[in-house]
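Q: How would the structure tokens look for this protein?
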Amino acid sequence: MKLLRIVLGIVLPPVGVFLTSGVSSALLINILLTILGWLPGSIHALWVIVKQEEKTDRQEGVS
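A: Here is the predicted structure in token form.
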């Protein structure tokens, strides 16, 4: 699932962010960045996806 989100974050940035964080402020920011250009939207999407994975890994390590 992580690989799918990363690929979607590159190809269709808002979809990758939506699958990672749902309807949130990150999604709205990503939509605006994607409207401004594909590259800023993709960079932001990858950042959101990686940060969410790090947060999940950290929480699983504590339990």
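Residues 14 and 23 are 10 Å apart (CA to CA).

The mean pLDDT is 94.

Upvote if useful.
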